[in-house]
Amino acid sequence: MLFNSLTFVVFLAVVYGVWRLLPGVRSRNAWLLLGSYVFYGAWDWRFLGLIFVSTLIDYVAARTMAGASPGRRRAALLVSLSMNLGLLGFFKYLDFGIVSMMTLLRWVGLDPHWETVGLILPVGISFYTFQTISYTVDVYRRAREPERNLLDFALYVAYFPQLVAGPIEQSTHLLPQLQRPRAVTREDVRVAFLWILLGYAKKIVMADTLAPMVNDMFAAPERFSCLPLLAGVAGFALQIYGDFRGYTLIARGVSRLFGVNLVGNFMRPYLALSPRDFWRRWHTSLSSWLRDYLYIPLGGSRHGAWMTARNLMLTMLLGGLWHGASWIFVLWGGYHGLLLVLCHFLLRRGAEATWRGWRRVAAVAVTFVFTLGGWVLFRIRNVPDLVAYLRGLTVFEFTPLAASYLVPVLAFGLLLGVYHVWQELADDELVLLRARPAVRLSVYVFLGLLLAVSESQRTPFIYFQF
Q1: Which stretch of DSSP H or E encloses residue 392?
Q2: Is the pLDDT reported for residue 335 higher than 90?
Q3: Measuring CA to CA, how many Å separate 191 from each of 67, 174, 249?
Q4: How far apart are CA 308 and CA 300, in angstroms?
Q5: Domain end position, chosen among 129, 148, 181
Q6: Which residues are catalytic?
Q7: Average pLDDT score over residue span 418-436
Q8: Cα–Cα distance list, 343 to 276, 278, 367 (Å)
Q9: Domain boundary among 132, 161, 181
């Protein structure tokens, strides 16, 4: 059930309409949980058993920790981690492991002929697995008490607005909101309308319009010269931002209608001043999760510069692997890990906050170039295609094809850039709501017209595959 489908609009209307009529938190949460399971089961009803098993394991594991001895608490945590990571590894990485092992054995002269399993990846499993792991780890660390109400905990795991592509919510933020009485205010509706409208515009108008061009270029990079290749990766940068940010905005807007405020997940990432700053702005719920549950437990920055560099690299390598079962994603994670290590050695902590004027503009430009390099690795299909892409960058010619690629990229980039600079200068995500009514109405009409005339093909959200 895609957000950008009529089916979802009807589903949301029914769920929200009944929710508004129900009295009390308990009945409302029970209805939301039922709706969330219907939403998830619409992808494949067999996945419902998987998410329920994960929910039950973590609920019992956390309850077991309450008042238990240190040994029993560790055992309960290990059961939770083993089951969650085991299910994630089985469905997401089993075939990847088989293929990688066959490749390794062929390098040493053997010739295995193993069959891959061909499992269907349950949608959203990477997101809700990390979400439930954060809960049991927080209970183990005594950062929160174990949840006693199974219904509330199940809703925390399966809450449909953010179920299949995040943001990855920590229980200390989301669960208290689900458990308290929620009155939807006029401000909630105004914010929800803005976020949903912007989300659909970024997804349908920008991301889906650029998708055919990007797909064409990355399908056969050997056919293109420098300008189309650069336009293609810049187009992908806009596409993946519009796609993922669009999903997040729709999810946050829909959730706001239920009186729940999800974390933002994006803070104008293409205005980042350094690779370090980029990861404070891009997919922030994942960045925070990797910091709190991987980087810091590895030692963080507590044991000297070289151990910090090791921890940064390991965190980003595993973050890359989280995105997909492919060595290309590991390479992408390593690339960003290397950039973060260089920042650690070359930039003092907080240096970016002191930059002004031309230094700030130059930092944004340089960081964006490095980010584009990462997007090439993220989007490319294999190493031969990467070699072909790099070779094509040495061929300079301006053709009508190059112009046809550059025009939409420049147009969308300019519109997005102006809006983000406006937000950045005001330091306000909701700057449009503070604008004069005539300005706000003009933007709403403009976005509505773009959505009405958009002829782009409706495509699934990119992060659904992760």
Answers
A1: helix 383-392
A2: yes
A3: 42, 18, 10
A4: 6
A5: 181
A6: 323
A7: 93
A8: 7, 11, 11
A9: 181
- Predicted pLDDT of residue 261: 94
CB 134 within 8 A of CB 288: no
Instruction: Give Cα separations from 444 to 196, 247, 441, 447 (angstroms).
Output: 11, 19, 5, 5
State the Cα–Cα distance between residues 178 and 25, nearest whole angstrom. 8
Confidence band, pLDDT 50/70/90 cuts, at residue 81: very high
Domain shared by 120 and 227, yes or no:
no
pLDDT at residue 111 greater than cutoff 80: no
Confidence of residue 371 (pLDDT cuts 50, 70, 90): very high
Q: What is the pLDDT of residue 157?
A: 95
Q: How far apart are the first and last CA of the chain?
A: 16
Residue 454 has pLDDT above 90, yes or no: no
Mean pLDDT value of segment 317-324: 91
**Tokens in use for 292?**
């709190």
In what helix (H) or strand (E) does residue 15 lie, and over which residues does it extend? helix 6-21
Residues 456 and 364 in one domain: yes
Q: Which domain holds residue 76?
A: 6-181
SS3 26: helix
pLDDT confidence bin for 239, thresholds 50/70/90:
very high
**8 Å CB contact between 127 and 168:** yes
- Helix residue ranges, H only, 258-356: 275-281, 284-290, 296-298, 305-323, 327-346
Q: Which of 427, 422, 413, 414 is nearest to 440 (CA)?
A: 422
pLDDT recorded at residue 183: 87
For residue 102, what are the CA distances in angstroms to 109, 121, 330? 11, 21, 18
Closest CA to 3 of 42, 31, 46, 34: 42
How much is the pLDDT for 113?
A: 75
Rg of the chain over all Cα atoms, to the nearest angstrom = 23
* Dist CA 296 CA 280 (whole Å): 16
Tokens matching residue 411: 């147009």
